[in-house]
Amino acid sequence: MGHAASASCLLPKRATGSLRCTFVDHRPNFNYNGDDDNYLRILMTIELVALIGALAVIGLVFVYALISGSPPTPTSPRVLTAAMRLLPRRLPGDQPGSIFELGSGWCGMSPALARAFPEHSVIGIEVSPLPWLVSNLIASFKRNGNLSFERDDFMRRDLSDAALVVCYLAGMQMKRLEAKLRAELQPGALVLAHTFAMPGWQPLDRVYADDIYRSPVYLYEVPPEVSGAVAPASQTATESSTSGES
Length: 246
Ligand SMILES: C[S@@+](CC[C@H](N)C(=O)[O-])C[C@H]1O[C@@H](n2cnc3c(N)ncnc32)[C@H](O)[C@@H]1O
Hints:
alpha/beta, Rossmann fold, 2 domains, 36% helix, binds S-adenosylmethionine
């Protein structure tokens, strides 16, 4: 048999006469052991559990995207840069009102807002459990004392204390949100939205991000007539030219 060959068979013919031959067993060292079966079974179970876990996580994110009407697509760094440039250095109000990011996804713009406005509480509200968990994890590394993430439906939150509301939501959601903001926000409060505009509102200022979509970023201010659901903001606010607009 090929595997059971002796050393002399493998040496050139010239050398065999002068060498002592020792038997070398070339058979693979394969000792079948019942433990191997168990080992494979454990390995396959771990792989199966990992696969089911990964599918469950993807499924959960997907289901919440369907329920909420918007997937947790993050704001790109270029849009974030444009958004941060559009915001004033100081937010309105005698008291530092809260900053809300409505639908904060995987932590969204909240950490940048927390750094830019250290005297304000920045609260990211996210309904989808996994992005919310990841946001909390990221926040624990960032160590911004004024940054927190809450798992909730922002439509159920009272936003009357807001100095600034930030959002990146699908167009249909913006319609529902518009009525809520109109009813709850104080005069002078700011609203920053990107990609989808606030329907019926005239932006105070607008820039386009330096990305391939030229994503629009809008800054709105709640005028006195708008707060308390009196009149649509489009009748009252004015659009100004922007230094960063291209
Ligand atoms: C397009 S993502 C934006 C994420 C983040 N703001 C950013 O800019 O990176 C929209 C997020 O809003 C969340 N969302 C949608 N409707 C919501 C609601 N009613 N309450 C809380 N979160 C909501 C979605 O789960 C999703 O994560």
